[in-house]
Amino acid sequence: MTAFPPLHQFFDAAALAIVLGGTLIATLLRTPWRDAGRAMRALAVLPRRPFSADPLVEQIAHLSRMAKRQGVLALDRSVITDPDMAEAVAAIVDGEGAEAVAARLNLARAARVERHVATADVWTGAAEIAPAMGMVGTLIGLAAMFATMNDPQRIGGAMAIALLATLYGALFANLVAQPIAMRLRRAARIEAFERTRIVTPLAALAAREAPRPSRGGTGPDSKSGPKSGPNLVSVA
Questions:
Q1: Which residues contact 6 (CB under 8 A, 6 or more apart)?
Q2: 20 to 30 A Cα–Cα from 95, which one of 14, 15, 111, 153?
Q3: H-run or E-run covering 182
Q4: Contact yes or no for 18/140 (Cβ under 8 A)
């Protein structure tokens, strides 16, 4: 039975620098800085549980009871950490109707989905670039190997770069970048679905608290005061 070679034989700093450095540079060149920053910050989201709208739905129910007892202006003093919901509640306090509040929430949800998709696309692009950078490392290693054919001690290092660069590119693409992209897309789909659950209760709250138009008419028949009789013209 053949023993597995020691792990240190699979490490080569030059090959790793070619693959990771090339992937990073190529990703930054094809990605806006804002999206690249979000892609790095998104790594902190991966260990968290998927987004759930249950706490927001419970808070909306609490806000609805509060508005019913104390008036809609009491909602302005509430602490709301979710930005989409805070914007919707502020619109309700300002007297916007159900359709306007629902439109605000749907627009905010669509913008959030676009940001999440752009973040996942950064990691998808890195997964596409890494194998190509591995091939670049292989070509560099082969070129170095042919350039040092008369020095047997240097051939081994050049061959290690050629082989390990391809290995690093495949591993980074399939075990790091692509899984991160898929998990971010899954989290984005879950959050997009969950946020649809807060649209209906907030729209219902807006419909209940929206200012009602006055019932009094504004036409000439509604003016108060004594009515003057017809103008009589005396004929001599």
A1: none
A2: 111
A3: helix 178-195
A4: yes
